[in-house]
Every structure is written in structure tokens, then in C-alpha cells.
Amino acid sequence: MLTVNRLDQQDARLLIEGARQKADEIGVPMCIAIVDESGNLVAFERMDGGKITSVTIAQDKAFTAAAARKATHEYNEKCVPGSLVFGIHTAMGGRLCVVGGGLPVSVEGEVVGGIGLSSGTPDQDMVCAQAGIDHFLTIRG
Amino acid sequence: MLTVNRLDQQDARLLIEGARQKADEIGVPMCIAIVDESGNLVAFERMDGGKITSVTIAQDKAFTAAAARKATHEYNEKCVPGSLVFGIHTAMGGRLCVVGGGLPVSVEGEVVGGIGLSSGTPDQDMVCAQAGIDHFLTIRG
Amino acid sequence: MLTVNRLDQQDARLLIEGARQKADEIGVPMCIAIVDESGNLVAFERMDGGKITSVTIAQDKAFTAAAARKATHEYNEKCVPGSLVFGIHTAMGGRLCVVGGGLPVSVEGEVVGGIGLSSGTPDQDMVCAQAGIDHFLTIRG
Amino acid sequence: MLTVNRLDQQDARLLIEGARQKADEIGVPMCIAIVDESGNLVAFERMDGGKITSVTIAQDKAFTAAAARKATHEYNEKCVPGSLVFGIHTAMGGRLCVVGGGLPVSVEGEVVGGIGLSSGTPDQDMVCAQAGIDHFLTIRG
């Protein structure tokens, strides 16, 4: 039997809170998705003004980051024609997302979930995703 | 009427065994999928620690290799913008996988199945897929 | 943070072994799928002679049983026209399976995974799925 | 290693020929699909006037009959609310078809493929599918 740790609802709220604060600060309403370590959705918030396409994309970013234990921008870097990783962006019907903005959430070296942001530029999405994680880890202590 | 040969369950276990041994050796827990010559799943193992995204990707690699009778890394090489092969990675809803790590399994020049590995880098996946085939062919004699 | 228990590869093998023994006993080659508590595949075996359609159906039964923490035949009972449960069999593109043959696997009252059998009648599938669980629990002690 | 027999292109043409003759006789232009024993398409003909929806349905009927080694109308009989088989009609995204008109094609007791007809009533589809098989077996001798 394996024993694994995963985000609970309270953790998910902290992650969203941190991401939302940063999104407010930069003035870009976002879709924010939190998944557990298996990639299943725990919480989701579409800030007023968040994009409709981002409802799906934020979830796919969070899923990818948690389920593959890798940031989506890291896949993006390697997913260039001629690289053996190229093509992974169409896996799972395109659910495996290589657009920047999905980060695994780790506690004590173990991936316990994922966060995905979408509606801004990938750089904005990444900054907000990281802000969510920073807030979560700070409050958790 | 056509007569074709295909992997049976015992063959599939040998393929998995060889791949798993190599995965253990390089310290990367993998998802390992074996399909028959028509691309249908015969056996699957997610080693403890294998990635969730790899559950699908390993199967798609094995499917592609067997059903197209071509290693996924060979498709990858040609699947670059400007090549007429480009775009094949989105076929079948992305199930046709061009990420390295899927190999056809041949016996006496005939493709009898496919093996797909996922969770490491493509190079690691390819090495373990080949190790599965080597083990299978050695034991078979 | 939540802490959850889930089947590992060794557990999955025991479940498959018990199910396969019963399938051999009744003379019906089966597809056998084992998933973890989140519904993700851990191990799969298509016995020689198992049906191609059962490759998917066995996995979907196991997924449903684990992810909904309910036997597929229990959904089946309630999934009749006029019942408010009716229609659940089309959820998730039909992946939510209400055909008998999928059972949650529980240890000390906690669902730690699921087993799905397909290729026989639902009754045969259910008997083999239960045999897998019995074998697993007996060996585990 | 397993050795299996499957329809070749010549066999497929005989099956289509027999089905088409019957469709002409009853005055209903049909879609006719022939798959191999693994459920993969070998030949397809949309008679002038065949329905567009039937392009998919004929293929799904043939697939189901071959891959599950069972006539689609036999599934239909059992796929009634309250039966443990109910719900199987949504499996594989609905590709598992329980509408009458799909028959496995057997030679010497072994399923070597499937035939699926669509565009008429299920009874008409079934009659034409059977006519295809009769023609095939007669010519084969």
C-alpha cells in the first residue's frame, strides 16, 4: 500500500487567494484551478472578467503540472520541433498542456497538487501561479 | 484470409519485465504498456511512482509503434514544420504519439506488437523500451 | 493536507492474480483492470482470448468503482428510467460505467482502489472481480 | 505467441457484394462496413443514397460485432433497464453499438471479422448483413 499526501480544500483556498491577490495587483482577471496530486480538481475560481477559454486551459495546466510533476513551461521549453519531446502537447486530446502557467505544488519535496492560471500572457499566468504557491507556503509556515 | 502472429500474455510479461529491470537500474519508475499487432492493450504496469500522465502516453506510444509499425522517435524526427509528415502528431485526437519511447516488437521480421514507456526523458523511455524487447527476444531464444 | 492510502503495484498483482484464477476456473478469458483510489490505472491484463471491447470497459468499470466509491452494479440498479440517477451512464463520455463487474477495493473501511472485469456476462465479471478482492485480502492478512 | 486469422481485402469485397445485392433487392441504399477480427476497418462502401449518420454507425456496428464477438442485436436484447448489461451502449464514447445490424463473421468457429450495415430499419440492416455473410461463405466454399 502507498500513502500519499494531497492538498485539502483549505490548502486550495490559500493557493487561490495568493494567486488572486497577484492577479488583482497586475490588473488581469484570471481563471485559477487547483488539483490534487492525481490531477483531479479540488477548487476553481473564475475571477469576474476571466476568459471562457481559460476555464479549460487553467484546469489542464494544473492537471499537467501535478500529474506529470513538472511545470508546464518546462515542457514548453523542450517541446520544440526536432526534440524528442515534441508532440507531447497533443497527448490526451490536448489536455496535456505545455503553455506556461501550470506549476506543481510541493511540500517537503513531494508533489501534493498543482495550480494552473490562465487569462493573461503566459508570463503573467506564471507569476500569479507562483504567487499562489508562495502565499500557501507562507501561511502554512 | 490473412494469418497474423501477435504477442500473447506471456510475451507481454517478458517485455514488461525487461523494461522494468532497466527502469529500476536507472532509477526512474515508469509506466509500461504492451499492445498487440493491432494496437490493442495486452498488459500494463505503472511502477510505483510512475506519472499519471504517462498512463495514457505509454499506451499511446505502444499503440502508435505497433499500429503504424514504426518507432515513435522515427515519427518525431520527421514531424517538423515544413516536412509533409508534420501534423501527424494530432491524428486520432493526439493518440498518434510522436514522443520517443514507443517501439514496435518484431519477431522474424513481422511486427507482432508494440511497447511504450513513459515517465522519464524520451531517451530514458527509449532505453527501457529497448531493454524490454531485448529481454523478450533473449528469453524466447 | 489530506493523507490517503492507495494500492501499490504489488497489491494490484494480487488482485489480478485472484481474478485470473477465477476466470480460468469458469473458463472465460477476461480483461482485468486495477486502478488506484483516484481512478488512475495501476495494472492491466488481457488474458489470451479476452475481448477487445473489454480493454476499455474493464478500465472504465474499475475507474467508476474507485472514483465513485461504488460498485458498478449498484449504479446499474438505480440507473433505470424514472429514477433520478438515470442518465449517469452517459457521464464523462460514457466512461462512467454502470455495467456490472466493477468493485471498489477497500482496506479498513477506506477505498484504496478499484477492480474492473470484462468479457463474460456481468455476473461472471462480478464473481471474478470479487475473487480478486478476496485473494488480495487473504494474502494481505 | 498467438496466431489469428482475419478477413483479407478479397473476403471483405465478398461480404460487401452480398450485402449490397440484398440492399438493392429491398431498395434501401446502405452504408456497409467490414472490419477485421480486432475491429479495425478493412473496407467500406456508402451506396449512392446511403445516410451520412450511417457512415459512423455502420462502422461502429461492425467494430462491436467483431471486437466483442457478439451480434449487436444480441446486446440490444440484454441492454434493457434493470439488466446488469444496461449501460454498455454508452461505452467507448458510444462506439459500442447495440443497434441491430452488426454481425461477427466466423469461419470454422473463429471470429475473423465483422460486418455492419446502416441506413435501413434495424431489421433491414440485419437482413443485409446476414446476406453479406451468406454470400461470403457460399463463394468461399
UniProtKB/TrEMBL annotation, chains A, B, C, D:
InterPro entries: GlcG_carb_metab_protein, PduO/GlcC-like, PduO/GlcC-like_sf. Pfam families: HbpS-like. This is Uncharacterized conserved protein GlcG, DUF336 family.
